[in-house]
Specification:
This protein is mainly α. The chain is built from 15 helices and two strands. The longest helix is centred in the last third of the chain and has 28 residues. The chain is globular and about 45 Å long. Bound molecules: geranylgeranyl diphosphate.
Length: about 300
């Protein structure tokens, strides 16, 4: 499938909303073609995988991968594979997070959660199979100029998903329910739980192109880390200030479950101030990249100022 080249046009040509719509459309078509077909056995499992992944979500992580690809002049054909892999991991994490043994939620992306629509065992297996599919994609396609870089990509992707990343952050989150924790402990948890995959999305997109210097990669990683944390701070703020209809998921659950959040630890106004500081630091990290970083710049603004 030919990649939508508009995704790689400069920001003056298409504005951010058009661009993000193009990325979302490209992702939908790509994911549609990469996921196992509904009419192949085991059909119920494949249906559940497709249900969890297609037709919803903001596609923020793919957008970050495409925007980072602009920094290294990456081939969009490569970027759409890493963007899909990251989005598939994200979909799996939401399916498992919603299970009764975790957050026990019934609404996701404005529709019944996967275990409600199917059943718990199918949802568990759909998450497992989505995770395996994501790693298969990273192994099956040529994504970097050198084999060494491709292995580095596989390593950083695995680390972002595992106990030193998202799954580890989720374990800490579950262990913290009802506990008094400090801000640094909350930050550590979110840097792993939400931040690790967001950081990986940025670096994986960048690795699809021309090799960048260590200094440039460090600045991109700084950007990814700040944006990843800002994403979570804003999520906590929206959980307080928005509503279930707008977000397409149950609001106020963290408070009901007595979970520590940025709002409960800092208060609403300081949490908003913290998100603004993280945004500024993320933008500072881009200062050496010039126009190539325009989309990353816009995305950071979008993540912090979003209403859903
Ligand atoms: C089960 C291993 C495992 C991990 C789950 C990331 C995560 C860990 C759970 C998600 C739960 C959650 C609501 C976290 C808050 C921040 C977050 C990741 C929100 C959902 O991401 P969005 O807003 O969702 O990008 P969409 O639907 O737009 O893709």
């Amino acid at each position: 499938m030919a990649a939508n080249l508009k995704i790689f046009q400069a920001s003056q040509v298409t504005d951010f909303q058009d661009w993000s719509r193009d990325v979302a459309g490209n992702m939908e078509r790509t994911l549609e073609s990469l996921l196992p077909a509904s009419n192949t056995a085991p059909t119920r499992l494949h249906d559940a995988m497709r249900y969890a992944t297609l037709g919803g979500g903001k596609r923020v992580r793919p957008m970050l991968a495409f925007a980072a690809g602009l920094i290294s002049n990456a081939d969009p054909e490569r970027v759409r594979i890493v963007a899909s892999a990251v989005e598939i991991i994200h979909a799996y994490s939401l399916v498992h997070d919603d299970l009764p043994c975790m957050d026990d939620d019934v609404l996701r992306r404005g529709k019944p959660t996967c275990h409600v629509e199917f059943d718990e065992a199918t949802a568990l297996l759909a998450g497992d199979a989505l995770q395996a599919l994501a790693f298969e994609l990273i192994a099956n396609f040529k994504l970097a100029d050198s084999a060494e870089t491709q292995i580095k990509m596989q390593q950083l992707f695995a680390r972002a998903c595992g106990s030193g990343g998202m799954a580890g952050g989720q374990a800490i989150d579950l262990a913290n329910v009802g506990k008094q924790i400090t801000l640094p402990e909350l930050e550590f948890m979110h840097i792993l739980k939400t931040g690790a995959l967001i950081r990986a999305s940025v670096l994986l997109g960048a690795y699809c192109g021309t090799a960048l210097s260590e200094a440039d990669l460090a600045q991109l990683d700084r950007y990814g880390k700040r944006v990843g944390l800002a994403f979570q701070v804003v999520d906590d703020i929206l959980d307080c200030e928005s509503n279930t209809e707008k977000l397409g998921k149950t609001v106020g659950k963290d408070q009901d479950a007595n979970k520590p959040t940025y709002v409960s630890l800092m208060g609403l106004a300081p949490a908003k101030q913290f998100a603004t500081e993280l945004l500024q630091d993320a933008l500072d990290a881009l200062s050496g990249f010039g126009d190539r970083a325009e989309r990353l710049h816009q995305l950071a603004e979008f993540i912090v100022r979003r209403q859903h």
